[in-house]
Structure formats: C-alpha cells, structure tokens
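Here is my example:
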Amino acid sequence: MPKSQREHAECMPQRLIRWAEQNGPNTAGVNVHILERRIHLQHGFHACLGILRLSKQHGEERLEAACQHTLALDACSYKSLESILRQGLERLPLARQNLPLLPEEHINLRGPGYYHCPEKGAPQCYPTRPWTSCKP
C-alpha cells in the first residue's frame, strides 16, 4: 500500500469515532464495537460511514436511541441499526431485566425419563408407535 494511503487508513478510525461522538456516545460505541470486531480495520469503514449516513436519513436523536438498543442487545451492525430505524423500534423502552429464555419448571417439560426406559436405557414405548422394541 502506498505511503499516503497507509497514513489515511491509520487516521481513519479516529476520525470516524470523532464524527460519531458528535452524534452521541452510543453512536460512537457502536462504531468502536464494529471497528474492534474486524480483523482489518478497513473492513469496518463502510459500515461506520453507513451508520453516520443513517443520521441524515432518520435524524440524530433516532440514531442515538437505536444505537443504545443495539449496544444493549449486542447486535452492533449496520443492518441491525437500519432495521431498528426502519421499524421504529428505537421508540420502544429497553428491557431492564434479563428474563430467562426457558422456564426451569413447567408442566409441558418432559424431562429425561420421558425419552428413555430407566431400567434398559432404550427408547420408551409409545402406544401409538408400535415399531418401538421397548416393553413397558
């Protein structure tokens, strides 16, 4: 890479972060996250520039709120931000509590005994499935 291009590539990340900080700390955080996740910084430049361009289309306040959502969801990408802004999801409140994905106890959870005969270790017999070889 020629020296002039190398110098430009070296100062570009700081410039992108400074531009994003003018919009707000969450926008800068998303840009930093994108640049840190790339093996080569140059691969993140277009995504960061696209994010900054979203502020022209949707407004700085909406972009900052959308960036806050993507940071909370750990989904920092141009596509995620664009989708949040297009659907207006940045107006929804952030979920403050971390809910478990699955309940620990529920009447519809079968457990390991449902799938194996305890004494044989073979699949459990089902009356509607006569092809199983397990005897109850």
Observations:
- Residues 119 and 136 are 10 Å apart (CA to CA).
- The chain has a mean pLDDT of 78.
- The helical segments are 3-23, 25-37, 42-58, 60-73, 78-87.
- The chain has five helices and no strands.
